[in-house]
Design goal:
By secondary structure, the protein is mainly alpha-helical. The chain is built from eight helices and two strands. The chain has helices at residues 2-17, 27-37, 72-87, 93-106, 113-127, 140-152, 160-185, 198-206; strands at 42-43, 46-47. A two-stranded antiparallel sheet has the order 1-2. α4 runs antiparallel to α5, α4 crosses α7 and α6 (140-152) runs antiparallel to α7. It is globular and about 55 Å long. The termini are far apart. Residues 189-194 have low confidence and may be disordered.
């Protein structure tokens, strides 16, 4: 049910969010998160083996149609290299964009890859200093933007759109935070930070997440 999906999504995100900020992500962490996300899920009347890499070939349909994902025999080695690349990278929007794109290109699980990729992006931005979980691709319209940003790289147009989408999600989260603070304190927008404009304030807030 929808309620169960939301509950399991929250468990998966909480698991990743509760990892130490300086934690080095492992394949086991990713498998555990997927296990929480897809526990007891069934596809085509068969269990989905939550938390385990897929054993069958996978081909994209719909918006991502025409794309073949990594063959099952290559998934373990591809994921090992992908996770290892994080240990040698600085947490940033660019790193999150590159990781999520490559993760989706591998498509290590039979289902739930998109949701898990977005949760992993939230974890990576936390490592970059983001104090709140960010929401990417939630809802039909937002998901359409997410898929468009991901598939743009398939046309050799780079990851700029995907990185921008991630940073925009961080910005939106900050905007919501400051608006809530304003409402609770009754502070006028112009008086925040000794007259600092919202754009200036957000520019300062976003510096740790840009490249």
């Amino acid at each position: 049910t929808a309620r169960k999906q939301v509950s399991q999504s929250m468990l998966a995100l909480k698991y990743l969010w509760d990892l130490p900020s300086d934690h080095i992500m492992t394949e086991q962490n990713i498998k555990v998160a997927h296990g929480l996300l897809m526990a007891n899920a069934i596809s085509e009347e068969e269990p989905m083996n939550a938390g385990s890499y897929r054993t069958k070939s996978c081909h994209a349909t719909g918006t991502m149609g025409g794309k073949d994902f990594s063959p099952p025999e290559d998934i373990a080695s591809s994921m090992e290299r992908l996770v290892a690349s994080l240990a040698n990278s600085t947490a940033s929007g660019a790193t999150a964009a590159k990781f999520s794109y490559n993760f989706l290109a591998i498509h290590p699980f039979s289902n739930g890859n998109g949701r898990l990729a977005r949760f992993l992006v939230a974890w990576m931005m936390r490592s970059a200093g983001m104090p709140f979980p960010i929401s990417i691709g939630q809802g039909k319209s937002a998901r359409k933007h997410w898929l468009k940003a991901v598939t743009r790289n398939d046309s050799n147009r780079g990851l700029d759109w995907l990185e921008t989408l991630i940073l925009q999600s961080c910005l939106n989260r900050w905007i919501n935070f400051f608006l809530q603070v304003n409402m609770q304190l009754g502070v006028e927008e112009e008086t925040i930070s000794s007259g600092c404009s919202f754009l200036d304030l957000f520019a300062v807030c976003m510096r740790p997440f840009s490249t």
